[in-house]
DNA sequence: GCAAGGTC
């Protein structure tokens, strides 16, 4: 039997379909769907993996953060564990029957490694197995037939290169994460993470915020005037000096200029504006981000559109359509349905010549619409993303847009003013892709020497602004430029920074904890705080892949470097600890106590619950409550009434909860309680049964066994009956009932 | 409870 292994289930199925002369047979092996065809002696079986099916980790003995020295992780043993148990056991079962295996995973470094991971499992159960490798960049009949007609060898060096990355990421990430967390005294789910990709990314955000911190706005003035033509058309002109740094200068000019302007020159020309290039993941996220999607949302929706067959694979670096895709046929798909007028217009062209982006890779085609969706099949958000992909696809075949531009100059008492106009004369690709279109700036028809009336003169007070915070789309672009992360992980890295409470808001704003971690790393472990670590790793991986250097040599060098970093860190442990704790403390300051003026801080009670307390305790006992779960982020927004910082709560898997001013929040809660008392005979009905005083977990269990699991159940139940079945005294039950209703 | 990389 010949076993063919693809990187994902859907790829296995589609490849099998292309290669099979007849209908495929679906066979379930260890709970995994496989596809087969051919006679018993000449059978081909196709199975899809789920990306990596094994992961690297340290042995269990290293699990205790406090008992194991962080440094010991550097040269600790590394074990592999399967993460996809069903697929691994299916591989073992099939491996025993197979005489030959073809690795058909994605055509990139991780694909090679994923293939070798599967092969290792097969070799373990069948040392005789023969193997080869096929390469394809798109799952089209042409490419698949070509690939399987010309199998090649597995590139073990390339897989080793990928493996070295896994080891280095684990060793550096885990050891430094533990060291920093221990030094800061932040354990449990509050740990402070460090990694080759996340830390340099965080450093970018912190660096930008620091530029903003030190920025001093500089005042300047702008001078403009409104003019009117003889026909009564009005428009605005600006002084040729864009920014006046001295108020006196503008005042001077203002005094000098009168009520008549003369057109001194009019220049018209045309400007062409090239169609956009095909979407790869970064360009897609960036475009989706500009129409209001977060990176993570854009990718989540793209993933679901892909799984339902509406768009092609969304994780790709490629910006050039491979020749194997029949682009005309792909446009024809849309000659009915909501995009038909666009498709028909494109299909009129004799030759379809798409634009090409700078990046051409072998992994997958650029993102394009794979099938026609009906609006009713998708929700509003999905439709928006789908439409974006469809329109972008069309735009890559369209003609350039053309603008007519006008540059006019005016003279008002020897002072030069200007106005620029632009009008779209040939929409070209902008007809298909209407996003972020600049508006026409229209000017009336003007002739040189024409006299115009000056209606009013305007001086505007302005000041220079600090560089803006990064939006998600922008950050993902920068990450790509610096080589940080991959198409499939960049948005996840950003989500990780949010969930670790390193950043908040959009555009992205770092917490003081982030400052402290980045500063500590820059000082004592600079390697991991810079994107160069990735560049160096990439270069080393290239050398491993080309066979110039063995993997072990790269790993040894990396471990040595990390050991010397740890020497530095351990020598300065107290410094690191102090600096981190100072940053952490700053993130807990809510504002000043209204009673005594001391700091109000996020604190933890002896029982472990959190609250906002006054540092003047015990002289001052002002306090405010905080929600039980989630990470607390103190933002830089302040409440106008209480002058306290707004608070946001982050729970994993949920949207951030903007609680706002904790004082206002508490007052609202009190009001709601009063309201409820009024409506409920002076009593407050608890939400959960365990909120009733006298009912703990054990009693709640007994009540639940008797069918009483909600507060309302307890109110309605007959106390005598409940007492009989639960052995709880009637009096107790009556007391609870009285207390709540 | 640690990373980053696949995929669901």
How would you describe what is shown here?
The structure is a single chain. The protein has 741 residues and is α+β, with helices and mostly antiparallel strands. It folds into six domains: 2-49 and 84-154, 3-Layer(aba) Sandwich (Rossmann fold), CATH 3.40.50; 165-209 and 468-581, Orthogonal Bundle (Topoisomerase I, domain 2), CATH 1.10.460.10; 219-275 and 401-463, Topoisomerase I, domain 3 (Distorted Sandwich), CATH 2.70.20; 281-395, Topoisomerase I, domain 4, CATH 1.10.290.10; 588-669; 689-740, DNA polymerase, domain 1 (Orthogonal Bundle), CATH 1.10.150. It has 25 helices and 23 strands. A six-stranded mixed sheet has the order 2-3-4-1-7-8, sandwiched between helices. The protein has a six-stranded antiparallel barrel with strand order 9-10-13-12-11-14. A four-stranded antiparallel sheet has the order 17-18-19-20. Helix 3 (109-125) crosses helix 5 (156-184) and helix 5 (156-184) packs parallel to helix 19. The longest helix is centred in the N-terminal third of the chain and has 29 residues, at 156-184. The chain is globular, with a radius of gyration of 33 Å. The protein starts with a strand and ends with a helix. The mean pLDDT is 93.
């Amino acid at each position: 039997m010949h076993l063919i292994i693809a990187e994902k289930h859907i790829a296995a199925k589609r490849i099998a379909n292309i290669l099979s002369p007849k209908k495929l047979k679906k066979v379930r092996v260890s709970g995994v769907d496989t596809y087969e065809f051919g006679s018993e002696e000449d059978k081909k079986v196709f199975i899809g993996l789920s990306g990596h099916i094994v992961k690297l980790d340290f042995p269990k003995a290293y699990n205790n953060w406090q008992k194991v020295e962080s440094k010991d992780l550097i040269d600790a043993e590394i074990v592999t564990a399967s993460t996809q148990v069903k697929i691994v056991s299916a591989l073992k079962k099939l491996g025993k029957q197979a005489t030959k295996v073809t690795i058909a995973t994605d055509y990139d470094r991780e694909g090679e490694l994923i293939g070798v991971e599967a092969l290792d499992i097969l070799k373990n159960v069948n040392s005789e197995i023969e193997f080869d490798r096929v390469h394809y960049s798109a799952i089209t009949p042409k490419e698949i037939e070509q690939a399987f007609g010309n199998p090649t060898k597995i590139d073990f060096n390339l897989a080793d290169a990928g493996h070295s990355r896994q080891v280095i990421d684990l060793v550096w990430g885990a050891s430094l994460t533990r060291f920093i967390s221990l030094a800061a005294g932040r354990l449990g789910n509050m740990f402070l993470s460090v990694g080759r990709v996340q830390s340099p990314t965080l450093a970018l955000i912190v660096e930008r915020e620091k530029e903003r911190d030190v920025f001093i706005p500089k005042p300047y003035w702008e001078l403009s005037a409104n003019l009117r033509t003889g026909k009564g058309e009005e428009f605005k002109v600006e002084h040729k000096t864009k920014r006046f740094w001295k108020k006196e200068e503008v005042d001077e000019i203002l005094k000098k200029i009168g009520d008549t302007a003369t057109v001194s020159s009019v220049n018209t020309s045309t400007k062409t504006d090239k169609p956009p290039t095909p979407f790869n993941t970064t360009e897609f996220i960036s475009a989706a981000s500009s129409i209001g999607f977060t990176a993570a949302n854009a990718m989540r929706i793209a993933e679901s559109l892909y799984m339902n067959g509406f768009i092609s694979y969304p994780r790709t670096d490629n910006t050039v359509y491979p020749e194997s895709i029949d682009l005309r046929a792909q446009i024809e798909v849309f000659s009915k349905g909501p995009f038909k007028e666009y498709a028909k217009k494109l299909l009129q062209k004799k030759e379809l010549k798409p634009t090409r982006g700078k990046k051409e890779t072998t992994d997958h085609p650029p993102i394009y619409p794979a099938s026609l969706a009906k609006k009713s099949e998708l929700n509003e958000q999905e439709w928006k993303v789908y439409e974006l992909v469809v329109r972008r696809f069309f735009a890559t075949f369209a003609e350039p847009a053309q603008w007519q531009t006008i540059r006019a100059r005016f003279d008002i008492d020897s002072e030069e003013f200007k106005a620029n106009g632009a009008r779209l004369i040939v929409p070209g690709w902008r007809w298909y892709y209407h996003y972020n279109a600049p508006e026409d700036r229209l000017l009336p028809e003007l002739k040189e020497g024409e006299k115009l009336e000056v209606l009013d003169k305007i001086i505007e007070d302005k000041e220079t602004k600090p560089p803006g915070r990064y939006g998600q789309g922008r950050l993902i672009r920068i990450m790509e430029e610096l080589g940080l992360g991959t198409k499939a992980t960049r948005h996840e890295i950003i989500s990780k920074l949010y969930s670790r409470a390193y950043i908040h808001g959009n555009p992205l704003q770092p917490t003081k904890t982030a400052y402290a971690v980045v500063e500590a790393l820059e000082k004592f472990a600079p390697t991991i705080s810079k994107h160069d670590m990735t560049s160096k790793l990439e270069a080393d991986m290239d050398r491993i892949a080309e066979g110039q250097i063995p993997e072990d040599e790269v790993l040894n060098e990396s471990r040595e470097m990390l050991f010397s970093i740890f020497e530095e860190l351990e020598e300065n442990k107290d410094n690191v600890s102090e600096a981190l704790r100072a940053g952490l403390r700053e993130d807990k300051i809510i504002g000043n106590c209204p009673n005594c003026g001391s700091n109000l801080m996020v604190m933890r009670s002896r029982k472990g619950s959190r609250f906002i307390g006054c540092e003047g305790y015990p002289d001052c006992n002002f306090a405010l409550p905080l929600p039980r779960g989630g990470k607390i982020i103190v933002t830089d927004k302040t409440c106008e009434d209480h002058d306290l910082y707004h608070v946001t709560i982050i729970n994993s898997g949920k949207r951030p909860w903007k609680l706002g001013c904790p004082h206002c929040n508490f007052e609202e809660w009190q009001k709601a309680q009063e309201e409820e008392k009024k409506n409920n005979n002076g009593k407050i009905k608890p939400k959960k049964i365990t909120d009733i005083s006298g009912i703990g977990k054990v009693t709640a269990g007994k009540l639940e066994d008797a069918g009483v699991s909600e507060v309302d159940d307890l109110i309605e139940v007959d106390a005598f009956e409940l007492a009989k079945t639960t052995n709880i005294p009637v009096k107790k039950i009556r007391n609870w009932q009285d207390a709540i209703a």
